[in-house]
Design goal:
This protein is of the alpha+beta class. Helix content is 44%, strand content 17%. Keywords: ATP-binding, DNA-binding, Nucleotide-binding, Transcription, Transcription regulation.
């Protein structure tokens, strides 16, 4: 090459990656001894196995890199090939043929080596390119190694997922030959060596026909069903003959040449059995519920007393409305039964009846119980929680012992009643609810409101429709009717012979004051059934019958032996004295429990058992 041609060729070579780091001057030195060669279409440039004595740069045209008929790729203007021949003298590893008329720049190995030895700029440029390539190869190898590890990890996870699945997973090809199963599938098929076997052999006729239709269909709309639930239940027949009903899914994967299928089956035998039992129990429960309604009438409230019948009439009147109802009555009179009756007879009976005892929850937790809280609203609030009002949305909430609701929470309840909305603890979001409110108390809330212990406006909001439940001692012969009903129930429950109630027994029931009302009666009847023998029991040993007057007599006669009833009455009086002296404080340093030298839990149990309640 001469003059201008050398400069033009040097500029061309500088744009080729192999020479991109070589200086312009050094490239011109390279071009001084270069010649161009033209190859015709389909003319061989060199063959695989030829000596590697030069590299080529394509000035124009296109070549094919191949081995016989297998083509590795094509190269065109600006690309080079055979450069490894400049470094080593090994044979060509592939053949190169011109695809069209092609002009090549030939760089002889000896000329390249001379420049590397004599031209430091040329050597530095080539070395810089080789180092760059080496680093790129290192990076590629690192990425390949990372990809390999990631692939191995993914494969391990996939294997763990498949092998650990409770469902049976079966993969098969388009000829229905099984190619992979997980342990659950082997258990279902009752065979540890099913690879290569036909999946259809393990299905009944209907299941095999269905699977053949899904896999063999060529229609596009049918192919869509391949990646979906199976259209019917499949009966799998194991190698040992066990038949199991399964539901499942089928999916297809692969390429245009070959399709593979994944069948996932789930045993539904246990579920079907459970559903049958649930249906049976549901039917039985509905039947028994209807029977109980017919036997007891009035939603479990047994009565023949006019005063109690008036209560039931009031329940029927208010149930069809959404009016807030306040149920008042002594402890144990059945206030919750009345609340449930109102809910069942209301238009909300298909929704929940949510009950909360305001006196049984600590004051620092009741706000969260009623209205819910957000995560982190207070110490220990590790997650958000729905309150009882939100759970009762659309239904009814029964606020038992409403008189025990802390005074500071009463405005929040008043807001729910008036506006139908509240803010959960720790949240600025206002929640709307549609809730029917039924409250109950044994206290005189009006007197409490006058004493400043209960908000007067809340009392009037709750007392829209008051229901007063009479004490058991005021219901006449109801005590005998209820006792008879409870005897039958406990006798069945405890598998004991039903007890008889003589006229003397009934008279004993009628003579007792029943301070614990129906709850006390229930406890005594259960105790009687437990200790009874052959349907007999001495009710005088069960029902307290001592009068308070007898206790006074015993004080005047220290030689007299006290009965168990009199001892109970004495204990009750003694506890009442201690409670009054401590202003009804049960536990703590100056509480009644310390005064009586009893554990607070024991004293609380005795207060409940003796029917002791704090006067309003």
């Amino acid at each position: 090459m001469q003059g201008t041609e050398i400069k033009q060729t040097a500029v061309f070579l500088s744009q080729i990656p192999f020479f991109s780091e070589v200086s312009k001057t050094s490239l011109e030195h390279l071009c001084e001894k270069l010649d161009t060669t033209v190859f015709r279409k389909k003319e061989s440039i060199f063959e695989k196995g030829d000596p590697g004595d030069a590299m080529f740069v394509i000035l124009g045209g296109k070549v094919r890199v191949h081995e016989n008929s297998h083509v590795y790729g094509h190269m065109s203007e600006g690309e080079c090939f055979g450069e490894y021949a400049l470094i080593d003298n090994k044979e060509r590893s592939a053949s190169v043929t011109a695809v069209e008329e092609t002009t090549l720049l030939r760089i002889e190995r000896q000329h390249f080596v001379d420049l590397m030895l004599n031209d430091s700029g040329f050597a530095q440029g080539i070395l810089a390119v080789m180092i760059k390539r080496h680093r790129e190869l290192d990076s590629i190898q690192e990425n390949l190694a990372s990809s390999r590890e990631a692939l191995q990890l993914a494969n391990s996870k996939m294997s763990g997922l498949i092998n650990g699945a409770m469902d049976a997973i079966i993969m098969f090809d388009s000829s229905f030959k099984i190619i992979l199963t997980n342990p659950s599938a082997n258990l279902l098929l009752e065979n540890e060596d099913v690879h290569g076997r036909n999946i259809l052999f393990f299905l009944d006729d209907a299941g095999a026909e269905m699977l053949e239709k899904l896999v063999g269909s060529e229609a596009e709309d049918e192919k869509e069903k391949i990646n979906n639930y199976l259209p019917q239940v499949v009966r799998v027949i194991g190698s040992a003959g066990k038949e199991v009903l399964n539901e499942g899914t089928i999916s297809m994967y692969g390429n245009e040449k070959e399709h593979f299928y994944t069948l996932i089956l789930r045993n539904i035998e246990d579920r079907l059995i459970a559903e049958d039992k649930i249906n049976l129990l549901t039917t039985q429960a509905a039947y028994l519920e209807e029977e109980i309604k017919e036997l007891t009438s009035n939603y479990g409230i047994v009565t023949g007393d006019p005063a109690m019948k008036a209560v039931l009439n009031a329940v029927e009147q208010v149930a069809g409305t959404d009016a807030t109802t306040l149920i008042n009555g002594e402890t144990g009179t059945g206030k919750e039964l009345v609340a449930r009756a109102i809910h069942r007879m209301s238009k909300r009976n298909d929704k929940a009846l949510i009950r909360i005892n305001c006196g049984a929850i600590p004051a620092n937790l009741i706000e969260s119980e009623l209205f819910g809280h957000e995560k982190g609203a207070f110490t220990g609030a590790v997650s958000s929680r729905k309150g009882r009002f939100l759970l009762a949305d659309g239904g009814t909430i029964f606020l038992d012992e409403i008189g025990e609701l802390p005074l500071e929470l009463q405005p929040k309840l008043l807001r729910v009643i008036q506006e139908g909305e509240f803010d959960p603890v720790g949240s600025s979001e206002t929640i709307k609810v549609d809730v029917r409110i039924i409250a109950a108390t044994h206290r005189d809330l009006l007197s409490s409101s006058r004493e400043g212990k209960f908000r007067e406006d809340l009392y009037y909001r709750l007392n829209v429709f008051p229901v007063k439940i009479p004490a058991l001692r005021e219901r006449g012969n109801d005590v005998c009717l209820i006792a008879r009903e409870m005897i039958d129930q406990f006798s069945t429950k405890l598998n004991k012979k039903p007890l008889d109630l003589s006229e003397a027994d009934k008279a004993l029931f009628l003579s007792y004051n029943w301070p614990g009302n129906v709850r006390e009666l229930q406890n005594l009847v259960e105790r009687a059934v437990i200790v009874s023998r052959n349907g007999k029991v001495n009710w005088t040993d069960i029902v307290p019958h001592a009068s308070a007057g007898k206790t006074n007599d015993t004080k005047q006669d220290p030689e007299r032996i006290l009965t168990s009833e009199e001892l109970i009455e004495l204990e009750k009086e003694n506890i009442l004295k201690a409670l009054k002296m401590t202003n009804w404080k049960v536990s703590g340093k100056n509480g009644a429990a310390a005064l009586l030298k009893l554990p607070p839990t024991t004293l609380a149990s005795r207060i409940k058992a003796l029917g002791i309640s704090r006067p309003v």
